[in-house]
Amino acid sequence: MTHQEYFDKLTDSIDTLSDILDTEHYGMCLVDKDGYIIKWYYEKFFNIKASAAVGRHVTEVIENTRLHVVAQTGVKELMQLQEINGSMVITNRIPLIHNHEVIGAAGTIIFRDIKEIAHLHSRMSKLEDNFKAYRSEIAKMYAAQYHFDDIITNNQKMLNLKHLGQTIARSDASVLIQGESGTGKELFAQAIHNASLVSHQPFVSLNCSSIPKELLEAELFGYESGAFTGARKDGKIGKFELAGEGTLFLDELGTMPMDMQVKLLRVLESKEYVPLGSNKKVPFKARVIAATNENLSNSMQNGSFRSDLYYRLNVININIPPLRERIEDLPVLCSSMLSQKEGLYHQSRLHMSQEAMDLLNLHNWPGNVRELRNVIDRAAIICEGSEILPQHLPEYIQAYRKSSPLESSDGYYHYEIACLERQLITKALRDNGGNRQAAAKQLGIHRSLLYKKMKDLGIHE
Questions:
Q1: DSSP 8-state symbol, 29
Q2: CATH of the domain at 433
Q3: Is 183 in the same domain as 284?
Q4: Among candidate residues 33, 36, 41, 13, the one with its CA nearest the CA of residue 109
Q5: Contact, 352 vs 383, CB < 8 A?
Q6: DSSP per residue, 231-253
Q7: Cβ(47)–Cβ(27) below 8 Å
Q8: pLDDT digit string (tens) for 125-182?
Q9: What residue numbers bound the domain in which 288 lies?
Q10: What angle do CA 345, 349, 352 make, to 5 degrees?
Q11: What CATH number is given to the structural domain containing 161?
C-alpha cells in the first residue's frame, strides 16, 4: 500500500466519524509530511470551511501551530498549551507513520479553553467527595457492633482467646473461627474488626448457608446489567466490593459449594475478582474472617471441603469452647444479659435466684450462649418482680428439679447417673442432627429406650 493509499484509507475511516470529530468543542486536522492540510474537521470550531483550508499550509490557517514540526520530527506532543484567538487551548499532536516512515501528522484540540479544565477539576472533586461520602455511608450501614469488652467471661481459655484476638486484630491475616452454633463466632469476628486498623471501614457478613447455591457467586462477586436471566437492570454490588478495605465475614463456610470454594481461593490468592458479566478485574482489599460449626478436618477427608482453601484461611485459628465447657461463666453471662433488660420490661435490677441458677448449672446447653440468651429473655419477660425464679425458666430447665439431689430421696448416686445420661444423650442427638434413630445407634441402645430416657430426663431435642 502506497502512502497515498494509506492516507485515503485513513481519511475514509475518519469521514465516518466527522459528526463526532467536527463540533464546537472538538476537532481534528491532518497534514502531510510537508505540513499541508489534507483533511479539515475544524469547520465548526474555527468557523472555516474545509474548502478554504485543505491544500494550504497549516501555519496559514492555525496560529501558533506545531503540527508541521511533528510531521517532520515524528515526535508526538501530548497535552500541549497553544494560544488560539486569544484563548489557551490544550492540544495533542501525533505523527502518522506508515511502513516505518513518517508521512504526516494529526492534531486535535482536547479543551477549547483551559478554563474548562478548572471546571472539570471542580466536577471531579465533587464526584470524589460524593464517592467518599458514599463509602462513609456504607461503612456506617455495615458497622460492627461488638467489641472485646462485650465478650463476657471468667474462663481462662476464653480469656486467652480474647487476648489472641486483640493481638492479631492489627494484622491483616485471615482468621478461621470454629465453634458450635451459638458460641459467639460472629461476636469474635466483629470484635477483631473493631480492634483493627480498619475499624472505620465496613464489616460485611454473609451466611453461606442462607444463600441458594446458584446465587452465591452473584452475592459475593456482584454482577453487571444483564449478566444473567433475572438480573437487575442496573446490576448489583457484591459483598467483595461492599467490604472495601474493611472485613468480609463468611459465616457457615463449611456449607460453601466446591465450585465456589475454588473461586474464593482464587480471589484470596490473586487479590482481585471479576464481577459477573464483566471483563474488568477489580482489586480485593478486604480482610477475610471465616467461621464454621463443622469439623473441617472431617470435611477435607470426605472431600467436601478443599484443603488448600482451609490452609489459606486458617492462618489464625480461634476455636471457641461450648458453654458446657465453661459453665463457670453462667453467673456473669446471666448478670450481663439481665442488666441489658433492666427497664425494658418494667423491672429494675433483675437478678437470678440461687434456685434458678442451680437449675441452669444442671443443663448441658446444646444451643450454647444463644440458647442461654433466649432462656434469660423469656424469664425477664414473664418475671413480674426483680428476681428470676425457677418457675420463670422453660419447662425443660425446670424438669431438672426432679433429678436434683435437693428434691429427691434417691441421693447423689442416682443424680450423677442422670446427669451423665443426659449429657451422653444430648451429645448423641447433637452429633446426629437430632436424628433419634441414629443417636440410639451411636449410644448402642434401642430407640424405644432412648425415647423413654429422653422423657424421664426432660430432654426435648
A1: E
A2: 1.10.10.60
A3: yes
A4: 41
A5: no
A6: --TT-B--HHHHTTTSEEEEESG
A7: no
A8: 666 655 555 555 565 677 889 999 999 999 999 999 999 999 999 999 999 999 999 9
A9: 148-319
A10: 95
A11: 3.40.50.300
